[in-house]
């Protein structure tokens, strides 16, 4: 479920000309194709069949059922389409249309957010390694496309490289065969030895994260695309990304990144 407020919905409906059951200039078929291309979801799926089943009602149902990231991505792409159609036709954009467009853009950016990717992107400066940067780019794309479940194995590989690098930076040997939780455990011990953890609560959270990363080993091997698995659902995948993001933010503050 997205966090769109009633006012947000009113603004988006105005931007997308939804008053009479339509959505922009889409036909049923073109709207279906657009949504599939944007967020890999079928807007004609029965689960979005609200009341009359019109394009506008299907979009309203989509807003109610999908996550902020997914709704934000589709909204962003729809706004890009609206702008392209206006520019392509050489049509003048009225002040009312421009205001509606700008307000919808603000809503889209809020929904998409940057919390889940900003620390992954920032961490690229830690290791000037093309593979490291490629992993970060792939994870970012998965999140922004509303498909975090597809990026869980990439995230696991990324974290292995990330924490190995930080261990090496602090002179700690981290064998390539060691699991992620073991490597992170060594890193936490190094922080403790250097008296960089100032509160018992922070220390407890970091120690708990060792156990969480142990569970992540299982998720990566059994619930990601690393193997022929049934992938984890989107909301639980986002939960993992958000917790990893919070952990990385704390690590960055310690490392002065």
Q: Count every beta strand, where a strand is a DSSP E run of 2 or more residues.
A: 0
The helix tally amounts to 11
Ends distance:
34 Å
Mean pLDDT: 84
The largest sheet, given as strand count, sense and whether it forms a barrel, is:
none
Number of structurally distinct domains? 2
Give the SSE order as H and E letters. Answer: HHHHHHHHHHH
Percent helix: 55-70%
- Shape type: elongated
Structural classification: mainly alpha
Poorly predicted runs are none
Strand content: under 5%
Protein name: Abortive infection family protein
Pfam families: Abi_C
InterPro entries: Abi-like_C
Domain Abortive infection protein-like C-terminal: 183-251
List the helices and strands and how they pair.
Blueprint: H1 6-15, H2 28-39, H3 55-65, H4 68-89, H5 95-112, H6 115-122, H7 130-144, H8 152-169, H9 180-193, H10 200-222, H11 234-255
3D structure, described in words:
- The chain is built from 11 helices and no strands.
- The chain is mainly α and 257 residues long.
- The chain folds into 2 domains: 6-112; 115-255.
- Helix 4 runs antiparallel to helix 5 (95-112).
- It is elongated.
List key phrases describing it.
2 domains, 0% strand, Abi-like_C
Task: Summarize the model shown.
The chain has 257 residues and is mainly α. The protein has helices spanning 6-15, 28-39, 55-65, 68-89, 95-112, 115-122, 130-144, 152-169, 180-193, 200-222, 234-255.
